[in-house]
Amino acid sequence: MKTLEGSHRRLNILTGEWIMVSPHRTKRPWQGQQEKAATEERPKYDENCYLCPGNTRASGDVNPSYTETYVFQNDFAALQYDIENDSVNVNDLLVGETEKGICKVICFSPDHSLTLAGMTVEATVKVVNTWQKEYKELGAIEGINYVQLFENKGSVMGCSNPHPHGQIWAQQSIPNEVEKKNNTQLLHYQQKNSVLLMDYIKQELKLTERLLYENESFVILTPFWAVWPYEVMIVPKTHQNNILAMNDKQKEDFAKSINVITKAYDKIFDTSFPYSAGIHQSPTDGGNYDHWQWHMSFYPPLLRSATVKKFMVGYEMFAMPQRDITPESAAKIIRDLI
Predict the structure, then answer these.
(1) Which pLDDT does position 30 carry in this prediction?
(2) Half-sphere exposure of residue 169, counting CA atoms within 13 Å on the CB side?
(3) Which one, of 284, 252, 331, lies nearest residue 139 by Cα?
(4) The overall pTM is greater than 0.85
(5) Which domain holds residue 179?
(6) The pLDDT of residue 158 is above 80
(7) How many CB atoms lie within 10 A of CB 219?
(8) Taking a C-beta distance cutoff of 8 angstroms, is the pair 154, 277 a contact?
(9) E strands, 198-301, where?
(10) Which of the following is catalytic: 163, 165, 188, 295?
(11) What's the distance, Cα to Cα, between the start and end of the chain in Å?
């Protein structure tokens, strides 16, 4: 495949948006902010942790002595379900409406010292089982049309508690990023009678330069349009519009894929690698989503070292996303650590 050497832009086929790539920028000196490296060891149990088994949360509720995954309603939820519908519209210039939803927290493990990188495949399968259960149950609730599963890992990503956990936001409307991906996948399906991400991974498997890992059921790759320095995507090899389509073998292979990439991340700068990770999949509004292919993305901010992160400011905020290393060079770094 032809390589673009200088500054250039790449199209994100899932969102329809362009990404600026400036590979020469890594040579510039850095005298800016540096983060604290996440290297401290944590105990298996922390009596001051709101998420550890048996502890009292800030709300006053007491966690059970759970031994596997544990899910509870977020004590400080961003969305509310039991509220009346309301709206405002002033000349189509000031427009707002009620957004109903349910927010939950999922503790991946009772062990406070762990991250997904340190969990066994068997333990991670239990997390996947919980994701499936919550997606199915929340998606069946009246007025819940999308379920977002995600994890913020590390204080750099705004995580307020180091206990291994993620979140689930189930809501009435289809979120912006999901709406973009729905539109591009639907258009591709209508025009070519094929699934966009299935066509994409078939091509990437032939080229291999952004391929990081594959097993029988899944592919891990650095997307051609990646924004974050070490961004990756996990995609099923078979057509599946949501995570409920996975059988037991595929769930195990998915858990292995998560284990592989999170372990590799921790080796890049010899630190507990921060990231935001999330699963995009078909909405739960009862529509036809044959055009969807679910996928899990990891957006890690670290760029030069364990203490220097990529800032999305200035040009990124006012113009378009920009990255300083090519996805291909990032892919090689990660691939060599797997």
Answers:
(1) 38
(2) 18
(3) 284
(4) yes
(5) 8-335
(6) no
(7) 22
(8) no
(9) 211-214, 218-221, 232-236, 275-280, 295-299
(10) 165
(11) 24
Q: Is 270 left (phi over 0), alpha (psi -120 to 50) or beta?
A: left
233: phi > 0 → left, psi -120 to 50 → alpha, else beta; which?
A: beta
What three-state secondary structure class fits 102? Answer: strand
User: What's the CATH number where 293 sits?
Assistant: 3.30.428.10
* Two tokens, residue 80: 């509310």
Q: Is 154 helix (H, G, I), strand (E, B) or coil?
A: coil
2 inside domain: no
* Paired tokens of 116: 């997904």
The position carrying tokens 């590979």 is: 23
Q: Looking at the domain assignment, is residue 299 inside a domain?
A: yes
Residue 69 lies in a domain: yes
Instruction: Please count the CA atoms within 13 angstroms of the CA of 226 that sit on its side-chain side.
Output: 26
Q: Mind listing the pLDDT tens digit for each residue in 268-309?
A: 999 999 999 999 999 999 999 999 999 999 999 998 888 888
Number of domains observed in the structure of the chain:
1
Quickly tell me which residue has 């899944």 as its tokens.
218
- Our answer to whether residue 165 is catalytic in this structure is yes
Hey, what amino acid is at 135? Answer: Y
Alpha-carbon gap, residue 56 to 315, rounded angstroms: 44
On whether residue 3 sits in a domain, the answer given is no
79-126 residue pLDDT tens:
999 999 999 999 999 999 999 999 999 999 999 999 999 999 999 999
